[in-house]
Design a protein that fits this description.
This protein has 208 residues and is an alpha+beta fold. 54% of the residues lie in helices and 12% in strands. Strand 2, helix 3 and strand 3 form a beta-alpha-beta unit.
């Protein structure tokens, strides 16, 4: 009888510890602070929305990531609903094979004023060029002219050392911040601790 009571008491204690730990984690402040704040925001990052908005979403993305593609219209719609209150800062986390070169294309397109156009056409045809295991980024050259991108200029600009430095800085920042999957979101420095559409929307609304 004593043994059974001891087992029940132990299980009860474990449940209490689990519930208590979950509560503390959920309610703890996980905000990025100190030196990591610099790693979260860089002057070179592309910004959508109101640059003076009080609420900032930072997204680390990979153009070969299917989930990033899925979240792109979702986040843009939230920006559209809150045009004065929100801004989105786009950062790179090129984790997939050859994503580094795709990011080079996007940054080179930015020099032609075609940053978002490049991202959207790359996402549009992602299933054709980003087959996991056998990506074929060479196919992207055929898609970019659809949005008016000059391919010859793009190829020249991709060689610019400032583009290479920018991407390497973003990669270094993913390591500083512990970003190891995409997309990764931070809202006013607070990471999305439970991933999902509803969870992201709730985090954003809590900061508006």
């Amino acid at each position: 009888m004593k043994k059974q009571t001891l087992i029940i008491a132990s299980l009860f204690t474990l449940v209490l510890l689990f519930v208590g730990g979950s509560y503390l984690y959920k309610n703890a402040d996980h905000s990025v602070t100190g030196e990591k704040t610099t790693a979260l925001m860089r002057p070179h990052a592309y910004v959508l929305g109101n640059p003076n908005a009080k609420t900032t979403i930072v997204e680390f993305f990979d153009p070969a990531c299917g989930t990033c593609k899925s979240f792109y219209p979702f986040v843009k719609n939230i920006l559209k609903q809150n045009p004065d209150k929100l801004k989105l800062v786009l950062r790179y986390a090129p984790f997939h094979t050859d994503s580094y070169y795709v990011v080079q294309m996007i940054e080179a397109a930015r020099l032609q004023g075609k940053y978002l156009e490049a991202i959207e056409v790359i996402y549009k045809y992602q299933d054709k060029w980003a087959s996991h295991g056998t990506p074929n980024i060479g196919l992207i050259w055929g898609f970019l002219p659809e949005v008016g991108i000059d391919i010859d200029k793009l190829k020249d600009d991709m060689k610019k050392p400032e583009i290479d430095a920018l991407i390497k800085q973003d990669i270094a920042d993913t390591k500083t911040l512990g970003v190891n999957a995409t997309p990764e979101f931070f809202v006013n420095g607070k990471p999305l601790t439970k991933f999902g559409y509803k969870e992201l929307q709730a985090l954003i609304e809590s900061e508006l």
